[in-house]
Amino acid sequence: MRTSLNILGVFAFVAALGGATQWLARDFEADQAASRAQARPQFREIAWQELVPPGWDPLAQYHDQDIAQLDDGSAEAVALARRMRETWDNAPTNRALDGARVRLSGYVVPLESDQGRMSEFLLVPYFGACIHVPAPAANQMVHVRLAEPAADLRTMDLVWVNGQLATGRTDSAMGMAGYRMLATDLQRRHTLPR
User: Fold this and answer.
1) H-type helices in 63-139, by residue range?
2) Residue 91 region by backbone torsions, left for phi larger than 0, else alpha for psi between -120 and 50, else beta
3) CB–CB of 70/81 below 8 Å?
4) Rounded to an integer, what distance in angstroms lies between the CA atom of residue 155 and that of residue 167?
5) What does the alpha-carbon distance between residue 57 and residue 149 come to, in Å, rounded to a whole number?
């Protein structure tokens, strides 16, 4: 009887030790996850509207013109379209975001790729920008360079990018970007951005 109690005591001790080991392992894993989260740079999710400086109205200088009365091919319409494009290409940026670590969602307009791996693209706020419709204002385009080139990234893929934002113009065949970003992380999205 005494031997069976000793054996039961040993089993109880081993079971308690196993439970304590599992508890310590979970605690260790939680500490490690917290350390990794602290070591990983934090990114603030922003919306496209935040890239526009408060009070900027790209159409302010055109409110007094009756655009509906212009013929599309007329010299006056062409000159107006050229002036509007210049206004958009020179759109001011939000200087408060210069150097900010941000997370932004948008659509991919490829600029640089090699053997199916994309390293540079424009991030734009809506589908078809720069491809099927004119480029948005410069303060609505971000020139993204990826820290690691991405495979299988295509035109108009919807993505999240994390990185440090900088104000500064980048002119490309696809349009003028008012921001630059070195993206440390990219994820594909399946839902529309805000």
Assistant:
1) 75-89
2) beta
3) no
4) 24
5) 36
Q: Where are the alpha helices (DSSP H) in the chain?
A: 2-39, 75-89
Provide the token pair at 106.
């948008």
Question: How far apart (Å, rounded) are the C-alpha atoms in residues 163 and 165?
Answer: 6
Determine contact, residues 87/41, Cβ cutoff 8 Å: no
Distance in angstroms (rounded) separating the CA atoms of residues 5 and 2: 5
What does the CA dihedral 131, 136, 141, 145 come to, rounded to 10 degrees? 20
Instruction: Please state, in angstroms and rounded to a whole number, the distance separating the CA atoms of residues 70 and 178.
Output: 30
CA nearest neighbour of 150 among 182, 180, 116? 116
- pLDDT in tens for each of the 194 residues of the chain? 555 545 545 444 444 445 544 544 555 565 555 544 444 569 999 999 999 999 999 888 888 888 888 898 899 989 988 999 999 999 999 999 999 999 999 999 999 888 889 999 999 999 999 888 889 999 999 999 999 999 989 999 999 999 999 999 999 999 999 999 999 999 988 644 44
Structure-block tokens of residue 70: 């212009």
Rounded distance between C-alpha atoms, residue 158 and residue 144, angstroms:
14
